[in-house]
Design brief:
The complex is a heterodimer of chains A (108) and B (380). By secondary structure, chain A is mainly β. Chain A has no helices and 11 strands. Chain A has a 5-stranded antiparallel beta sheet with strand order 1-2-9-6-5, with no helix packed on it. Chain A has a 4-stranded antiparallel beta sheet with strand order 3-4-7-8, with no helix packed on it. A two-stranded antiparallel ribbon of chain A has the order 10-11. With 380 residues, chain B is an alpha+beta fold. The radius of gyration of chain B is 25 Å and the shape is globular. Chain B has a 4-stranded antiparallel beta sheet, with helices on one face. Chain B has a 3-stranded mixed beta sheet with strand order 1-3-2. A 3-stranded antiparallel beta sheet of chain B has the order 4-5-6, covered by helices on one side. Classes of the chains: A mainly beta (108), B alpha+beta (380). Chains A and B meet through β1, β8 and β10 of A and α5, α6, β12 and β13 of B. β1 (2-4) of chain A pairs parallel with β13 of chain B, so a sheet runs across the interface.
Chain lengths: 108, 380
């Protein structure tokens, strides 16, 4: 598994990808042709993947995203070093924080 | 009309994301033209007056006066007198929201649904409205609650029965007046979805109003329109967030104060700069205490109180702060793996469940994986 700031990228076997993922819409690429894993509302800084493949995300602020990279790819961010990913399937998880009675998303 | 293929959800989301966070004075003549066009598109006579207000609070007051349902004892002020000044008779106003907003919206939705099918509609929504929904919904909800609480404060358990009996119908009256409003820029999720497939159609005037003004109230013969906020400060997660002033403010002074999404009283922020560990410990409101702790800095607080780490491993350091009459604050201190431009490594703190025993278990929890499974092979 790989961590870039507040995003964890976990390799998964193709056979372990839930069947519902196929029914989720493929996310469009950003204007720079990247797959955006997480986007900062104010700075617009993004954890994004460069390379062929597709990203599908479950609904909701904590929705898990699923990333398929047929040839591998690179995860970039304005404030973090690049991470190279081998080809395969990945589960992408946003970091969260505990608050008594609730849980909130982390914004780094 | 046949909707287009999903050609531009990305552009639509970007455009309407910007609208939802828009600030600054409205182009009043353009908005007024769009308001008149919206009435005409709904088959209604144009309003004789389009009245402007500095915030949803003022517009809601005017709406209450127009409807003739202002709660007893509510000081209405000049905003409520505006319709009468413009020659509109107060009392018994008829809302035309249904004709202007609801019906064309339903028609657009049905058309897109028919063209794309149920799964196509779900896909369109996931790529457009679903992206904008959580933030716009949270923001409009906060504004609505604030207007409600200022015009008809919620009674507390300590209030007399008589006060509580009066509060219930007063709050209902304000809620109903708020329901007459069109959320303008906060309708961005829906407008983005229709825009992405070229299906705005009869909603085009509504889209133009949304892009140029704030919330608005269409009544027979008169429309009440709000200016946009002058200030809107959010954090990276899109939550209202500002430590040195209102996170959201309107030209008439109506404002909301919040720290990382948490509503706080305005005077609370004034005292934040001078906060001390003693004041943090003495604060009885757990949420405000959390804000004070975050603002003061966990690291500083721990250093001041001479705390010892609970646990330390290669993922970070686990700390605990004991608080009177409350569950302890347990946090992991994590170091960024990528150096800052000055060569230092930024540290950040994440609160984890109080039952956490190791730093690795804490970090693993923040990503929803088990302690045993959390083994990153590369971190940046």
């Amino acid at each position: 598994m790989y961590r870039q700031g507040d995003v964890l990228i976990v390799p998964v076997e193709e056979s372990a990808v839930p069947s519902v993922v196929a029914g989720l819409p493929a996310r469009p690429r950003d204007p720079r042709g990247r797959l955006v894993l997480a986007l900062g509302e104010v700075t617009g800084h993004a954890h994004a993947v460069v390379g062929p493949g597709e990203l599908r995300r479950e609904a909701g602020p904590f929705g898990t995203a699923w990333l398929r990279l047929p040839e591998g790819g690179r995860v970039v961010h304005e404030e973090h070093a690049v991470i190279a990913l081998p080809k395969g399937w990945y589960r992408v998880v946003r970091q969260r924080e505990y608050t008594p009675g609730a849980v909130r998303v982390v914004a780094d | 009309m046949v909707v287009q293929q999903l050609s531009s959800p990305r552009e639509a989301v970007a455009r309407w994301r910007e609208v939802a966070a828009g600030t600054g004075p409205a182009d009043r003549p353009a908005v007024e033209r769009a308001v008149r066009a919206a009435y005409r598109a709904a088959g209604l006579a144009e309003p004789s007056a389009v009245l402007w207000f500095g915030s949803p609070l003022e517009a809601a007051l005017a709406a209450l006066a127009l409807r003739g349902t202002a709660p007893e004892g509510l000081p209405l002020g000049p905003a409520a007198a505006a319709p009468a000044t413009a020659g509109v008779r107060p009392g018994g106003a008829v809302s035309v929201r249904e004709a202007i907003r609801t019906r064309p919206w339903e028609a657009a939705r049905e058309r897109v649904h028919a063209d794309l099918g149920a799964s196509g509609w779900a896909e369109l929504w996931a790529l457009t409205g679903g992206e904008l929904w959580p933030q716009t919904r949270a923001l409009s909800g906060r504004i609505r609650d604030a207007v409600l609480d200022r015009l008809a404060p919620a009674p507390t358990e300590d209030d007399e029965q008589e006060v509580r009996d009066r509060a219930r119908p007063a709050r209902a009256a304000v809620r109903l007046a708020l329901l007459d409003g069109v959320l303008g820029p906060h309708d961005a999720p829906w407008l983005a979805a229709f825009d992405a497939v070229g299906a705005l159609g009869a909603l085009a005037p509504l889209a133009e109003i949304a892009a140029g003004a704030g919330w608005w109230w269409p009544y027979e013969g008169v429309a009440l329109v709000c200016e946009r906020p002058t200030e809107l400060h959010r954090d990276e997660a899109g939550r209202l967030d500002r430590a040195d002033g209102p996170a959201l403010a309107y030209p008439d002074g109506f404002a909301l104060h919040a720290w990382r999404g948490m509503p706080v009283p305005p005077e609370f922020l004034d005292g934040l700069a001078g906060v001390t560990p003693e004041r943090i410990r003495a604060e009885e409101n757990a949420e405000l205490r959390r804000v004070m702790l975050e603002y003061y800095g966990y690291e500083r607080y721990l250093a001041d109180s001479g705390a010892e780490p609970l646990h330390r491993d290669e993922t970070g350091v686990l700390w605990r702060i004991q608080l009177p009459d409350d569950e302890p604050v347990v946090m992991v201190e994590v170091v960024n793996s990528t150096a800052e431009p000055d060569g230092t490594f930024r540290t950040y703190w994440l609160r984890v469940p109080p039952s956490t025993r190791t730093a690795r278990a804490g970090v693993a929890w923040t990503f929803g994986v088990s302690e045993a499974d959390y083994r990153p092979q590369r971190e940046t």
